[in-house]
Design brief:
With 271 residues, the protein is an all-alpha fold. The protein contains ten helices and no strands. α7 packs antiparallel against α8.
């Protein structure tokens, strides 16, 4: 059977979240390994592509060409996961299996509900997805030799914090549009004050971290998250014309990688 072009995830930001989670998790580990990181990249890439193929297969008009791709990505991801579990002794990641199962079941279940709006397009849905993808960061940390313990939760919290920052910032930009166009519906406008409160909490968190851990680790956290806080101010400016979201997406990806790298360096200084 001839394969057609594989379905791609429509959420382009998911790739940035995956990349940043891997950078943060692997970089935070005491002795990160290239082979482990490669396995994680293959598993994460296959999972994201497989999700897109699965969702396409659930639509009857796309079922014929999407089902083979769903099986291909599932097999590739499973092979990478087995490689992590067996070759690199990452059996400590088994606790993620039931969590991932709940995420998959919930995602598929919500996607099959007949509503006028897709849940994954809402702010709550995007934040839930970011929290789920953020689990890749502690998985990368443990698979790269990091010990189990409170540190795992700290790595996940750092990944979730920077992901939520990007989501709220983009939502705030859309909500700041002054026109009554479809690009700025009333339900999105509350994201502007939500983004302000969230980034204010991030700023207060940096102050608390400075008192708790002190330099040089606190400097690393400040270098990582200060640009996120400063760029959030751009989301509060009223706009009459919609910005170019492609440029915003590229800028957000680069900023997220910057944040992930410096956060990993700061965490290694603390851990």
């Amino acid at each position: 059977m001839r394969l057609s072009r594989p379905p791609f995830p429509p959420e382009h930001g998911s790739w940035a979240l995956l990349a940043c989670a891997i950078v943060l998790g692997v970089g935070s580990a005491p002795s990160p390994g290239g082979a482990t990181a490669t396995m994680l990249v293959v598993a994460a890439f296959s999972a994201n592509m497989g999700r897109a193929a699965l969702m396409a297969a659930m639509r009857r008009r796309d079922e014929a060409h999407a089902r083979p791709w769903a099986l291909i990505w599932a097999g590739l991801g499973l092979a990478a996961a087995i490689g992590l579990l067996v070759e690199y002794g990452a059996y400590r990641l088994l606790w993620l299996v039931p969590v991932a199962g709940l995420v998959v079941v919930g995602h598929v279940g919500l996607s099959r509900i007949r509503t006028t709006r897709r849940f994954d397009r809402t702010l709550a849905g995007e934040l839930m997805g970011a929290l789920g993808i953020g689990l890749l960061a502690p998985a990368a940390y443990v698979a790269s030799g990091g010990p189990m313990g409170p540190t795992v939760g700290l790595v996940w919290l750092a990944a979730a914090a920077q992901s939520a920052s990007g989501i709220l910032h983009v939502r705030a930009i859309i909500g700041s549009l002054t026109s009554r166009s479809r690009a700025a519906p009333a339900r999105i406008r509350p994201a502007v004050p939500m983004s302000a409160v969230y980034h204010l909490m991030l700023a207060l968190g940096l102050i608390v971290l400075w008192r708790l851990v002190g330099p040089p680790a606190a400097i690393g956290f400040a270098v990582a998250y200060a640009p996120l806080i400063l760029r959030s101010i751009l989301g509060f400016r009223r706009r009459s014309v919609a910005p170019r979201f492609t440029r915003i997406g590229i800028a957000e990806t680069m900023l997220s990688l910057w944040c992930a790298g410096w956060t990993a360096a700061a965490l290694r200084g603390v851990l």
